[in-house]
Amino acid sequence: MKNLISGTAFARCVGFAITLVCLTPVVTQAAPVVRTIKQTQATGQTATLQTINVWNGHGIAISFYEVNETIKRVWLDDPSQILVDTDGCLEGINQNCQNPGAGLIHLRRIKRVNIPGLPQTSTTLLTIVTQSQTGERKTYSFRLATANGTPKYSQVVISNDVDVDPKKTPRPQLQSLVTSYQTVSNIKKGMAVAIRNKWLNPQDELHQRLERFIKYLQLGDDLSTAADKAVVSLELVNKLIALGSSAQS
Q1: Which domains does the chain have, with CATH numbers?
Q2: What is the pTM of this model?
Q3: What are the E-state strand segments in 9-49?
Q4: Chain segment 90-108, per-residue pLDDT in tens
């Protein structure tokens, strides 16, 4: 009799426990929707190649709204299994795009399409050219990888880096200032020689980019960074420096 009572009490306890579990709300931890990538992680000399996964049936958006940059052009090396769309027309994507500009890129995975001559790979390179409100251009590169399973994010946001405290910014060394001044002087003289020989037109866009390049140098950027910002080839810069040095001697 005692065992029967104990068994009945145990059954009641088990039934109560099951009821309690059923009535208790299940708490699930949602996966993050947004993945943030700092500007310096994706563009410039400190950048590293960031991998962005694209899952089946789950699009990915890359947003430049936060940095207030306009997307001007996009290249996708392997378009056989990822489609690219934007919120504005772009060179390299849309035909007859007179005024290219967008703020967001949408990526969507599709069933692989066989493209003659294109090797099949699991990853591809996405290159994006943007322009700031001041006219400065930046180049971003991302590795796109097809992925399976549960998506981990649906949006990639390019964000501004934390502002550097000017009090903690080291002052440029005197030698670097002298070298930069000499370089700028040679480039200006080289441009003057090119204009005299009609190799360079002061009204052309190239001349304007060279002027921006000089401005970046004067602000403290090195040759490579300034050339990247102003969209000027280092080969042209070296030729102008050589022309300026010859004119000086």
Answers
A1: 34-159 (2.60.40.1080), 174-247 (no CATH)
A2: 0.52
A3: 34-38
A4: 766 677 777 778 889 999 9
